[in-house]
Amino acid sequence: xxxxLFNRGRIDRDRYLDIEADIRTYLDRYLGSDRYRIPGYYGxxxxxxxLDIIVCLAPGDNWQQIRQTIVNDxxxxxxxxxxxxxxxxxxxxxxxxxxxxxxxFESTYNYLSFNDLGNLIGKxxxxxxxKYGERGLSYxxxxxxxxxxxxxxxxxxxxxxxxxxxxxxxxxQAGFADxxxxxxxxxxxxxxxxxxxxxxxxxxxxxxxxxxxxQSFLDYLDRHQITKKYQYLDNRDDYLPWIAANxxxxxx
Length: 252
Fold this sequence. Notes:
The chain is an alpha+beta fold. It is about 40% helix and about 20% strand. Strand 8 (about 130-135) and strand 9 (about 135-140) form a beta hairpin. The longest helix is centred in the N-terminal third of the chain and has 18 residues, at about 15-30. The mean pLDDT is about 95.
């Protein structure tokens, strides 16, 4: 994500859609339409820095072999593999392939859709001792001194996550016309608070520098004088009964 690896810059929407259509045609034939996802983006997005593709890896799949086939079939000259991310230069534009195992295929797609929306949701979750990411929603057990103890997966079902946070899942499914709708959808969550955006952590400061969407969100909060602060309980552990009731199968 970000599109800076090959230093080719951003491209306009029409050219991006043409490249995306090319890649979809190829992947439909090679992998099948059920084996990959392209994260959603808002309707009036005018330019793109890269194309992200999530590839579902089934047991026994050889990712190195799949990568080599893509390189050969698409006549890729420049590429780089780093962990689970495979970056290529196709038609002078960066195309990044991410891998996800079957249980986390859809949850990875959900998390990566609509720019940095997954990160904004994660900020809301954190105050409840919850973690939201590519593996869905997890509960973080901690020692009494605050150190990490254990991460317990609750669900990969994004609809269930939205129900917990009282977010409009139907709107998310329908998509967002523009980035303002994404911001409004996030702030509409009854548990939203501007606190972490005022007292910024080191990781948030770094993300502001790296991700223009986060900076745009901060600008939006300031420009619209958003002061919303949900009054969280002092002790995060006190939310455990509420979370356990919403996800009984997790046996918290």
